[in-house]
TrEMBL record:
It holds the Pfam family FtsJ. InterPro entries: RNA_MeTrfase_FtsJ_dom, SAM-dependent_MTases_sf. SUPFAM superfamilies: S-adenosyl-L-methionine-dependent methyltransferases. It comes from the Eukaryota. Residues 159-191 are annotated as: Disordered. Residues 375-527 form the Ribosomal RNA methyltransferase FtsJ domain. This is Ribosomal RNA methyltransferase FtsJ domain-containing protein. Transmembrane segments: none annotated. It comes from Effrenium voratum.
Amino acid sequence: MGSEVFRERLADALAAGDFELHCRIYHHRSFGRLHFFDTLAVDPISRESFIVELLCRAAESETVTEVVGGQLSDLRLGDVVVVYDAAVDLRSPLPPCTLTLQVHRLKLTETWRGLFQKGEDRTGPGGNWKHAFHRPAFHDAIDESYFEELDRRALERQREKRKAKAKGEKQAESEEEASDSPADKAPWTRTREPRAMLQCHMPLAQRLAEYLGGRVLSACSRDRLVLVDAPNAAATSRAAHAPRVPSHLHSIIQRIFFVDAGRKAPSVAEACAQYLAAVFGPVDHAGVGDLWDFLCRQRHIQCFPRELESSLSAAVRASRWAAPGAEAKESPAALALPKGRCDSMVYADGLLWWSTDVPRIIVPEKDQRSVPSGAYWKLLEILDRYRPHSMTRQRLMDLFQGRGCAVDFGASPGGWSFCLATALQIRRVIACDPAAYMHPLVRRLAPEDERDQFLEAFTPEERKDDAKHSRLLAERKEEAETEPKGQISHWRMRAEDALVKMKQRLDAQLPPLALVVCDMNEELEGACQLLYQVFEQKLYEAPCLAVVTFKNTCKSKQEFRRRKSAMLLRLQEEKVLTQVQEIHLFANTRMETTIVGQML
């Protein structure tokens, strides 16, 4: 229904002679003198995005397409053109295009290279552009079956290459890969409701999208954006306080951008004009000195990717709101946003998405002023996802929070130990690792006479890191202690020796273990052997939570799966662990997985 209205609106505008359509090129094919450009355009009324096919004719054709200030050969993928004169082709276009325009006159207004250029030519090795243009993955009113078919064919080609390269692989592995095919996943449903774009690193984008039921958008940098439904995004964008990000996603999500389906445009100039009109209204002058400086300091504007700031600042300073003229209707002070609120301009899927007065959410990913390492978030994710017998998180916390003692094998630099002592408030934590280094945050929780006992054994690199972290901690404002914290003791020894020491001190100086965590770089059988010793020597009190990371040190995936299954079966048959769950944490690499269970 939207595409038909869009077609009629374009036809009426062409007939009236009042026509100007901004399009971003994402695909090009040519046949002799005919050039077909698949472009992404936005309806100026409904603000829905459509794919429009531009039919252009090169020189020596019957009807030549005029390119203002250039020629057709100058157009590249990602460039933005403005169509001034065209005719609607009555023939149905090839999917996924909505309609075809026979173009008589157009102009190149924005190049892809110029969009993220910052003063000099930003090319990588071999002359490749730093930010490659990717095919859009999401649109409002487009049947994506065409794109899904392209993805299916690409997946088939990759699968054939893998089979040809490794003919000895078992059928089980190929079936596991087939289960990850996009065709097997639930179809993506579109909505006009506000949504959220989550910025994360590229390797984890697909896993985050599957976990949250979202979709990975095509971006132009190492980071990716995951589009997720946000039923309460409209209320959130108006709320005085930012929403809480789940703790176990702190190591994944970097920023959250709230977007509205009606606030987007193909070009920076058009998006900038819409944004400034929304902020300052239909006035000739914003009433501020340096308009870009005002947006940065008073409106706290954020851009994704960061390189977009250069093009956006140029568009802002070239706009009519920055030109000398009449004063704005509202004073600049009335337009300033409070702390925690911001405006945003995000490039994703060939479009610029802008927002005003939304929560400013920057997640302190692996912030080493607040946590020692990313391992801190692993344990919080386990508490969020481990559900024995459908037990709630609160019930799980009631069972293990505030217990007497825990041990962390392979502790350095102390992320898990710090989480045990702070988030779980374990009164005594044994951080066992032959390495000398522990993060300054961890050493702060050690007995005063033990805090610096291994400083002389630090390597030069560890001394450098320790000085940096100590400086950052000194610069951080000290917060009032509201929650009790446990004590961390660093036992610089191997795990086997630590178990002997625990046996000697049990009851007299050391309470039984309530939690056992292990993230050692050890074969899975070696890690499980520690669980056997704790179980057989009765070093624990039930229920004791056990968390072990299984590292894939095998030569093949099949061998790792076989050894993992055999070890899990043995642990459960011999009742060393019960209520066992395998959880692939976001912080886990592809070469490891996490096993969680209880000793009863």
